[in-house]
UniProtKB/TrEMBL annotation:
Pfam families in the cross-refs: Ribosomal_L7Ae (PF01248)
NCBIfam families linked to this entry: PRK07714.1 (NF005825)
SUPFAM superfamilies: L30e-like
Protein name from the UniProt record: YlxQ family RNA-binding protein
Transmembrane segments: none
Segment forming the signal sequence: none
Domain Ribosomal protein eL8/eL30/eS12/Gadd45: 3-93
InterPro entries reported in the protein's UniProt record: Ribosomal_eL30-like_sf (IPR029064), Ribosomal_eL8/eL30/eS12/Gad45 (IPR004038)
Superkingdom: Bacteria
Length: 98
């Protein structure tokens, strides 16, 4: 497991991560999302919706390999999109993923 995956897991345990497309989009609209992580194998409509919403609200978006990687980092089966709601975690994740 890589450093960013461990950090994402830690953020989730600290309850600073939102999972699921609708909840993530709600966080983006409300200004709570500091970073959105999207699976590279997400469906086209999901990808477009999340990308457009992040662009219009100026929320950083990072695409990672696949839904299983995100899921494993969070201790779940698979997750397509998650948002990080705490700026400390978000900044460190951006640093590790860039």
């Amino acid at each position: 497991m890589s450093k960013w995956e461990s950090l994402l897991g830690l953020a989730a345990r600290a309850r600073k991560v939102t999972m699921g497309e609708e909840f993530v989009l709600k966080d983006v609209r409300a200004g709570r999302a500091k970073l959105v992580i999207l699976a590279g194998d997400a469906g086209d409509s999901t990808k477009k919706r999340v990308t457009d919403k992040c662009a219009s609200y100026q929320v950083p978006l990072i695409e990672v390999s696949d839904r299983y990687t995100i899921g494993a980092a969070l201790g779940k089966d698979m997750r397509v999109v998650v948002s990080v709601t705490e700026s400390g975690f978000a900044n460190k994740l951006k640093q590790l993923l860039s």
